Amino acid sequence: MTARAGWLNVVVAAIVMLATLPGRTQGLGLITEPMLRDLHLDRVTYANVNLWATLLGAAICLPIGRLFDRIGLRGATCALTILLAGVVWEMSRLAGGTIALFALVLATRAIGQSALSVASITAVGKSFDRQVGVAMGVYSVLLTVFFAAAFTAVGTSVRVDGWRTAWMRVALGLLFVAAPASLLFRENPQQIANDTGTNDGQTLASALRTSAFWVFAGATSLFGLVSSGLGLFNEAVLAERGFDQSTYVAFLAATAVVGLAGQMLCGWLTLRWPMTRLLGVAMLIYALALGGLPLITTRGQLWALAGLVGMSGGMISVVFFAVWRRAFGALHLGRIQGAAQMLTVLASAIGPLIFAQSSRMTGSYFPAVWALAPCVVLLGLAAFRVQLASDRPRVSESSVRGTTARAADR
Hints:
Layout: H1 3-18, H2 25-29, H3 32-39, H4 43-57, H5 61-71, H6 74-92, H7 98-125, H8 132-161, H9 163-182, H10 189-193, H11 204-208, H12 211-232, H13 234-240, H14 245-269, H15 275-292, H16 299-328, H17 333-362, H18 366-385, H19 397-409
Helix pairs in contact: 1-7, 1-8, 1-9, 4-7, 5-7, 5-17, 6-7, 6-9, 7-17, 8-9, 8-14, 8-16, 12-16, 12-17, 12-18, 14-16, 15-16, 15-18, 17-18
C-alpha cells in the first residue's frame, strides 16, 4: 500500500469513527434529557436500558473483527453505516415503549460503539507498519477535532430544533456522508495476506496467551472504566472540592487541549520509544492525577490536574490504537482489536456504576478514586515489564548463516 493510500485511510477512518457518535455515551447524552421528557421515561429505567444495551452490544466486537479480516473493510463498513443510519432514523420517530427503545439503543451501541469502532481502528492499523504510531497520533487529533465540531453542531440542533430533528439530521449525515466516505478505503489484500511482520501475524488465540495483550487491554480498559465513571459525574466530583459549573467547563476544555498535545507527542515518540514504556509512563501520570484529585483546593492545582489528565489520556488513546499492529501483525488484526475493544466497552459500562455506588454508600466519589488509583499504578508498572515481539532484537539471516558456519568449523 502506498503512503498516500495509507494517509487517505487515516482520514476515512476518522470519519467512520465520527459516525459512531449516535452509539456513544456522549452522543446519546446530547438527546437524553429532551428524549426522556418526550417519551415520559424515568432515569432509572433509561439507565438500565443503556447499561444492558452497552454490555450486550459489546459482544459483536469479536465476530465483526473476524468479518473484517475475511472480507475486507470497504463493503462491510459501508453496509454497517447505512444500517446505523436506518436505526438512528427510526429512533427519531420513536413514539414510546421501553422494549422498542431498548432495541434501538442496543442497535446503536452494537453497530456504532462496537462494530464501526473496530472498523475504524483496524483500517489505520492495517495501513501502516513502522509508522503506525505516528498515523494513530494524527488519527487521534482528527477525532478530537471532528467530535468537537459534531458535538457543537448536534447540540445546537437539539436545542434549536428538538432532538427528533437533530437525530434525523445525524441519520442523513451517516447515509450521505459517512457511508460514501467508507467506500474510499484503500486495501491491499495481498500485502495483508503475506504480512509477516515481526511475529508472522499472530492469531487471536495466540495473542490472548501473551501477557502483552492483557497488560495493554487491561490498562486501557481500566483507564476507560475510571474516565467514564469520573466523566459522567465530573461536575459533581469537582463540586466536592469546591469548584463551580463554569470552572468545570473550563476544566474540560483544558483537558481537551492538553490531550491533543499528548496525542501528537505520543505519536512522535512511538518512533523512538517502545510502546511498553509509553503506556507505563502514561499510566503512572494518570495515577498521579487520580491521587491528586481528592486533594486539590486551588485553581492552580486544578489546571495542573487538567494537564496530567489530558496528557495521560492523549497518550493512552494513541497507544491503544497503535499497539495491536506493532505487537501482533496485520493478518488477524480485526479479531485482536475486536477483542480489545470489547473489553474497553465493558469496562466503560461498569465505571459509572462503581462511582455511583461509591457516592451512594459513602456520600463521596473519592473512595472509588482511592481504590482504583493503586490498580492504575500496578498496570503501569506491569507495562514496563512486558515485551512486545517487535521490540525484541532481530537476528538477521546473514548472522544465522555465519553462526551455523562457525559451528560447522568446530
